[in-house]
Amino acid sequence: MTFENSDEGGESTQELQNLIKELGYRNAMDVEDVLTHPEENVVAQLLTDEEIIESVIGINKDDIDEEDDESSTMEPPSRNEAIKAAITLNNFLLSYEKTTPEVLTMLRKIRDEIQEEIDFNEKQKTIESFFKKPS
After folding, report:
1. What is the pTM of this model?
2. Residue ranges of the domains in the chain?
3. Where are the alpha helices (DSSP H) in 1-135?
4. What angle, 0 to 180 degrees and rounded to 10, lies between the N-to-C axes of helices 79-95 and 101-121?
5. CA 53 – CA 59 distance, rounded (Å)
6. Where are the annotated segments for Disordered (predicted)?
């Protein structure tokens, strides 16, 4: 069954309404609401020249400036700083009432992984240097 879209729409709307009633839905939709959706009446949007250019290029100049500033000033933290941050976060999570054991376990695993890298990167000492008295 096909329905033609016309300005009147009286007959087709009534046919659709009858068809929906025949199907016996408990919460049947209103055909008028579906056919005359308010957002469909918006056919144009007035844009400024700058907005049109930004939409075509897809880049906002303010975003570019902010990204450049952030990337140039941000230095990666050291492993020791990461460990300190993990300990601080752990202390916070212990005092936070909605913290789950899974979150604490994951944080501990992350902290242990960083600590393993620190331990691995330490210089191996000879047995003689271990027994020497510091001067």
Report:
1. 0.37
2. 10-39, 79-121
3. 10-23, 31-35, 49-57, 61-73, 79-95, 101-121, 127-131
4. 160
5. 9
6. 59-79
